[in-house]
Amino acid sequence: EGPESFPPLRNEAAVRVLRGRMKGIQGHCNSCYMDAALFSLFSCTSVLDSMLFMPFPLCDRNVQGILRDEIVSPLRRTGFVRASSVMHLREQLTDKGQCSSFTSAEKDPEEFLNLIMQQVLGIEPLLKLQSGGQKEQECYCYQIFMDKQEDLVVPDVQQLVERSFLSSDLKLVEIPSCFIIQMPRFGKEYKMFSKIIPSLELDITDLLLDSPRECCLCGDVATLECS
């Protein structure tokens, strides 16, 4: 008999299970980078559930079991994950990685995702990007980098992704199966935006390499792109 699985939370069920005190993933000892990433990846979507069940070639079944049984299942079942469960995962990742501070220091979410997806589970990269006609690069998530923009006070995710791609001259080589986006820096010292509005859908038409688009003047298929 295989491990028990719980579907991601949707609509009213998500509100009922996840709202209120003692809900979500309990923070402890600089774990916020991992708590936020895990909550985003698994609470209300199943797009990465292969991470929990698939026997990938390089897969560490112990880490996969902790992730599935001690974190994702309780989160979807009761809406709460205790800090000790996340610490169990952090201890295992410290053993697997070249980095000894996963249990204590504050990390970048990208560092965590790269370690668990590439080195521990052996998943193929989720994104293929190309910058200015250069060789395509593969990655697991995309971090929004941009200069401070005075006209954006309370931006939405769509605006941030489009402007970030434009400023870095980036295109998606293909439609990604999963598009993990890390928002701009938000730390103790510096906050680029006080609030960001989630875009419930993301239009990537203008971000795709060689995708047919219509001319904004005549409506026919465009042959040139003006940034």
From TrEMBL:
Keyword S-adenosyl-L-methionine annotated: no
InterPro entries: Papain-like_cys_pep_sf (IPR038765), USP_CS (IPR018200)
Keyword terms of this UniProt record: Cytoplasm, Hydrolase
Domain of life: Eukaryota
One Gene Ontology MF term: cysteine-type deubiquitinase activity
The keyword Cytoplasm is annotated on this UniProt entry: yes
Full protein name: CYLD hydrolase
Origin species: Cnemophilus loriae
Gene that produces this protein: Cyld
